[in-house]
Every structure is written in C-alpha cells, then in structure tokens.
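[SOLVED] Need 3D model of a two-part complex

Original post:
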Amino acid sequence: MMNVKKVLSFFLLFYTCQISAGVVKPEAWSMSQPTLKRIFTVNLFCKRPPQTGEFLQCQADILGLTHPEPGKQLENLPVIIGGGMPAHHHGLPTQPEVVWSEKQQTNRIEGLKFSMPGQWQLRFFIHDKANKLKDVATFNIKI
Amino acid sequence: MSLLKSLSLSALKEPVDPSNQYLNNPNAIKFGEALFNDPSLSSTKTVSCASCHIGANAFMDSRTLALGKQQGIRNTPSLLNIGQQHWFFWDGRKDSLWSQALAPIENPKEHNLTRTELVHLIKANKRYKKQYKEIFGLSLENKALLKLPQRAGPNGNIKVLKKWKKLSTEQRKGINRIFSNIGKAIASYVATIKSQPSRFDQYVQELATTGDSRVLNDSEKRGLKLFLSQKSGCINCHNTPVFSNKEFHNIGTGIKAKDNGRSEVITELIHDPFNCLGDYSDAMPSQCLELKYMNKDKHALSGAFRTPSLKGISKTAPYMHDGRYKTLQDVLKHYSEIKDKKSLETDLPVINLSTQEQRDIIHFLLTL
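Solution:
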C-alpha cells in the first residue's frame, strides 16, 4: 500500500512539474482512432479541446497498425481531411488541409473549424506512399 | 451560466480586420461617417449608405427588398455589430467590411457611381480631399490621376467599361487604391456600430452578479430555455454575443435558378481584387485564413445564406435574405414546418414546436 502511494505521489509530482515546465499543457486534447480496415492508426492532438468559431491548432500522427508495422510513425503520406455533421446533413464549414511538417515531424491540420455545437465527424482519407493501400479513419467528436 | 455569458454583449470583442490598417483610426472613422451619410456619393445625389441603413431603425430599412436607385433582390441586413462578421452580404460575397462597402457604390441599382466619378467627387470636395490626404498620406493630385474620364469603371455599362479599359494599368491601380481607401474609411465607421445592452443582457448581468433576476417574464424565460435546447436547435447557429455563428447554412430559403445564395459567389470571391489576398489588402497572406480555407464546394453550399444576427430583431423585420417573412411568427412557422423530406434537403433537423413554444421563443427573441 505504501509503495502504491509512493508511486502515485511520484506521478502526481512529475505531472505537476511537467505542467509548470510547459511540457504537458492541461488544456491540450487528444484522441486516437484505427482506420476502417485497420491498416493505420491516427493520433489526433489539438492545443485546446475542439470548440466552435475559431481555427483549431491540431496535428495528426499516422502510425502503422498492420502495415508496414505496428506503431511505426509514417511520414508525409497523402492525407485528405473531410467531415461534417450527419444530423444536420452538412459538411465542415471550411476546407482544411493536412500538411506534413518536416520540422515538427507531424501532419499539421490547417484551416479546421467547427461551426456549431453537437456531434461532428472528422475523416482522414489516407493512402500509403506506393498508393496501393488506402483507408479511412473516422473520429466522432462532440463539441 | 457560462453559455448565457457567452451570449451576452459583455462578451463582445472589439472588431478585428488585418486587411484594414485604418480600422481604429479616429480620423478614418470620422471621414467614414461623413461618407456613409453623404447622398452626393450617388448618381442621383439622393442615395447614401444611410438611405437603407437607417440609424434609428437598427441600421436597416424595414423594406422587403432594398431600394437604392432601383429595387434590389435582397433584404437590407442590419449593421448592428457587423464588424464581428467574417463574411458580408447575405451570400458572403465579400470577405471584409471595406470590400463590402465598395460594392453598393458602383452597383447600378444602389448608388450607381463609377470609380472615376468617386475620385472626382472626393477631389472636388475640399474637406474630403484634406481628410483623405491626412489619413492615407497620399495626394489625390497624382500625375496618373489627372484628366480622368468622368464615368469609367469595370462594373458599369459598356460605355463606362470601354473607358475603363482605355486607362493605363498605372491609372487603374491608382483609382483602385483610392476606391479601396474610401471603403476602408467607411468600414472604420461601420465597425463602430454596435448594439446597446438589451433586456437579455441585463438579465444575464443580474444573474451573474446576484444569482437571480426578474428582468425576463415567465414566457421569455421559457423561450430562452427552448432557444438553448436541442428541441428548437436555435442555439446551434445563433450563438456568440451577436447570436450568429457567422457561417453559411441552407435552411430551405434558397430558390434554384433564381437566388441560390453562397454557392453562386465562390468564384467571384476568389477572383475579387479587393479580397484579403488582393493588392489592396493590408493583411499578410497568413492572416487570410477564412478566405484561404473557405468551403468552395458549390453543391454543398447550394441554397446557403449567412446566419443573420438576432440582435435588435424586434426592429429588423421583414426577415430572411429576401424579406419573405413579415413577422417572427412566420419565421418560427417556417422552422416548425421542416419535416422529414424537407429536412434532408437542408442543414436543419426536424423541429417540432407547439404554438405556445413558438410564442415563448418569439417573446424571448424580442428581449435581444
């Protein structure tokens, strides 16, 4: 019991230090989703939880799930982003783009915005570099 | 409470427009106000911006369709808090307030001026000429701008267009610079037009400070609750302190082959020389995110119009882009009649509201 307490205290202290050092931002938001055919996994990160009315600062890391190998980060794949609000029969208010950043080693999502509260879907259409495999990851996001 | 506060005028931010460096310039605001109210800025000397945007009437005109030199095809939108928007006109065919201000000046149905006429008018008015030079640091006596034809511009009749084409590139650029600066001055003034705190704002303030308020009566409070609920869904689009999400939605009011809203202006907007990315914009390209990432899918935007603000709605009848509804009862009836098949054709879910519920929502809307 004592050991558990010690471990928990350590993690609490570590997390607090990380926050104060700016490493872990408490308001940051993330979500992971495997693609439909389970070829890739998409890890979606945003600086703040998604909300309406502003351009979001998000990035998406694409990792192999069954191809080429589990957990391997895949660079500079052709990715198209889309989505919408199924209950309201409309798409995204903007046409965002997924851009590979060599410097940040991640896919930056530019121009993403939500226009109303409710249930949104965000889809990532991903091709492998050889353009032989394609798959889609769908995120259900409640704003 | 945080949702209520987000709808209150106290949450309103100051207008921002990186494409207009004169937005907060007091001299530009003063110059813009004079231009806004000046009927000499029209071919008949009878039409000013204030002819349709009447200050005592929430800066609109109560007409079904706007009336300048001739009748237009759209209802005059209120200018209250207009500086908060990203897109202008019902279809958002302009991406800044200054670029918007230019369009009526040379619209044959509105002011019906040409660009060179406007330059002549400003040059001929000693006060305007002085104000222009003070604000923009540019003289109107530029060599390229001497001996300009009286009526020339790209948007008039064929005679006017031919004269515009005969001008040199340098002359056209010089005229466009003056034209855009006039728009920026008008926009600087228009961006100062704001709502006064309403009964709703007072209600939110009292709730926030004392935890209770009797400013709204029972029907208005029921209406507010319904407005915020997914039973009506009003809050989905009518949010923020201006009660507009500033985006485009198809609510079933577009008319194919007549007025299909946003889908008809995408190409025009991309090629507009006065857009955020154009030569006359003061913004860095990285500041033009709305334009850069705007939805260009004409099919998806078919029949979509910009969500109008609901502030001052008691004074802004008739409603919708073509002023088709004279009363708020008509508007609520429109939403309540969106059933399954119609819902699929629009951005709206099926909305079921009883007559009493509609009445309560209207009572709430009148507190805005």
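Edit: Residues 10-24 of chain A have pLDDT under 50 and may be disordered.
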